[in-house]
Design goal:
heterodimer; A: about 450 residues; alpha/beta; Rossmann fold; 3 domains; 18 helices; 6 strands; about 60% helix; globular; B: about 100 residues; mainly alpha; about 75% helix; about 0% strand
Chain lengths: ~450, ~100
């Protein structure tokens, strides 16, 4: 019976699923509605899967076994990974999604021997699918520190990378044009896989937010391209939502660093300036102990905390929350200033601070809070560096020139928790550290924050 | 209108819609946005099921489809669960201070 009605039911199911996905993204515009968005997105996915299962007439055991295995690996990954590992998990998740698109493209290639437009869509699907897979695996390895996080470069790198990409495109175009030989498709796959690796190897840790967003976008384009191959509008809608989300995020990241895509992908940031920085670090700085720092905080009436990747590395977010609690209890106005590229993926700091139970209305974006620094008693920088470097405003020749920064230097007193005087990712010295109003708090972010909390608590009772 | 032409229009409209929607997402939620949109694009699971369940499929295609089903499901499950886990943490007031 279901077979009779299926042709009319199925489009309705897929249409409802598309609506679910669109609403899911729409409701993400505010934390209050966001969880509802996830639920409707899940319902959309469930509908799509059920609808698709109705179309299939054979081999259910393999399908269900595959779904069971996928769920059995995916669920523990999502629940057991600590929140600081969200960037890695996202990279891994991109890799699997892209691999699925790529494998389906490969299977379709051998099933329908496509031509013309379908072949063009299929080439795009497999090219982006395979390159996103290897690129995401490398990104994962770098984020998990299985590989060095610094940019790995060699002479002629860009020529080699672009050569591989050009090779893949040439083979792809030949196949679309109707030239066919058995070696061509496997060669195309090989070049795509290789290009993915070459693409991410020269990219350093602090550029990961842009790259992850870009890979997210590629995975979306691959899914949409699959929609063209299978003539399925649901795939096109879902894929293009993902593609635009990723693209927009990577544009936001690039703008927040005042750099272009080309510069992020092929620039291998921070290679040149190392020598100059080492020299400049000889200048004197003022440092302070946890006791002195606690006294400064105690005397303040407004504090802005600027977290960076260093806070994530030191897992200091819970101690930072204790500091927030202690100071708030004493009537100090404590807020957080979040730079768009702080951390290793877009929004990374927000997630960590939310995990530590800091109310989200205390987490402010750069544009919202920058005007308040001149009226703030203390700017406390925890594990951030380049995003508070005033050189970005003053020095036109600096690699970070023109990058929008948090105006921490305008606060009455600046305190910086930092392990040592080593320069940040951009490899340049930070003028902020040498100001008269700046106190350097040398030590591990977690230990130092804990010491300040203890000191403040001791005075309070 | 040919089917792919129609598809291109759908793609174009969805891209513009996506752009307008994503622009309104609070920067606070950029990480959940990424994991959610990633989970949505795991809609590739549809293609994976169709390939695996095709009755004319060769053994190679079945196996490719099977691996694709695993990968896509993993992406769906991990993507939605991690998004929900993150969103649960965003609270306006501290607990006990309501």
């Amino acid at each position: 019976m279901i077979e009779t009605y299926l042709p009319s039911i199925l489009p309705a199911i897929y249409l409802l699923a598309s609506i679910g996905f669109i609403l899911a993204v729409k409701w993400l515009n505010h934390p209050d509605t966001a969880r509802r968005g996830v639920i409707i997105g899940e319902m959309g996915m469930l509908l799509a899967v059920i609808g698709t299962l109705l179309r299939v007439d054979t081999n259910f055991s393999m399908i269900f076994l595959g779904m069971a295995i996928g769920a059995a690996i995916g669920a523990p990954l999502a629940y057991l990974m600590p929140m600081t590992s969200v960037p890695q998990l996202t990279a891994l998740s991109h890799a699997f999604g892209a691999l699925a698109s790529a494998l389906i493209g490969t299977a379709e290639f051998y099933r329908i021997t496509p031509t013309g437009f379908t072949m063009a869509a299929l080439s795009l699907e497999t090219l982006l699918g395979y390159l996103t897979t290897t690129a995401s695996v490398i990104a994962f390895a770098k984020l998990q520190e299985l590989m060095p996080t610094r940019p790995l470069t060699y002479p002629g790198q860009n020529v080699v990378s672009l050569g591989v990409l050009a090779g893949a495109i040439v083979v792809g175009v030949m196949m679309v044009a109707g030239v066919s030989a058995p070696w061509m498709f496997p060669a195309f796959i090989g070049l795509a896989l290789l290009f993915g690796i070459l693409l991410v190897i020269p990219i350093g840790g602090a550029d990961m937010p842009t790259v992850i967003a870009l890979l997210n976008s590629y995975a979306g384009v691959a899914a949409a391209a699959m929609g063209f191959v299978l003539d399925n509008k649901l795939l096109i809608v879902a894929g293009s939502l993902n593609a635009t989300a990723g693209l927009l995020l990577s544009i936001i990241m690039c703008k927040a660093m005042n750099r272009s895509f080309t510069n992020v992908l092929f620039g291998a940031f921070g290679q040149v300036q190392g020598g100059a920085a080492a020299q400049a670090s000889q200048r004197p700085v003022r440092s302070a102990t946890p006791e002195e720092a606690a006294a400064v905080l105690d005397a303040a009436s407004s504090v802005i905390i600027i977290p960076g990747y260093g806070m994530a590395v030191a897992q200091a977010q819970h101690k930072v929350r204790e500091l927030y609690d202690t100071l708030t209890k004493r009537g100090v106005d404590v807020r957080f200033a979040i730079h768009p590229v702080a951390g290793r993926m877009p929004g990374h700091m927000n997630v960590l601070l939310a995990e530590a139970d800091i109310p989200y209305d205390k987490l402010l974006e750069m544009d919202e809070i920058n005007g308040d620094f001149p009226n703030t008693d203390v700017a406390l920088v925890i594990g951030a560096n380049d995003v508070v470097n005033p050189l970005a405003r003053s020095d036109q020749d600096s690699p970070i020139a023109g990058m929008p920064i948090l105006d921490a230097d305008k606060a009455h007193t600046v305190m910086v928790i930092k392990r040592s005087m080593s320069p940040g990712f951009a490899g340049i010295d930070n003028e902020l550290y040498y100001m008269n109003r700046t106190l350097m708090l040398f030590g591990d972010a977690k230990t130092f924050t804990a010491a300040m909390v203890k000191e403040l608590a001791g005075h309070g009772s | 209108m040919q089917s792919y032409e129609f598809g291109l229009y759908v793609f174009m409209l969805a891209a513009f819609l996506g752009f307008e929607l994503v622009k309104r997402v609070s920067p606070l939620l950029h990480t959940p946005l990424m994991s959610l949109s990633n989970a949505i694009s795991a809609i590739a699971v549809v293609g994976a099921i169709l390939v695996t369940g095709d009755k004319d499929a060769t053994t190679l295609m079945r196996w490719l489809g099977f691996v694709a089903v695993i990968c896509a499901t993993l992406n769906v499950v991990a993507g939605y669960l991690i998004t929900d886990r993150m969103l649960k943490m965003f609270r306006k007031r501290e607990p006990g201070q309501k």
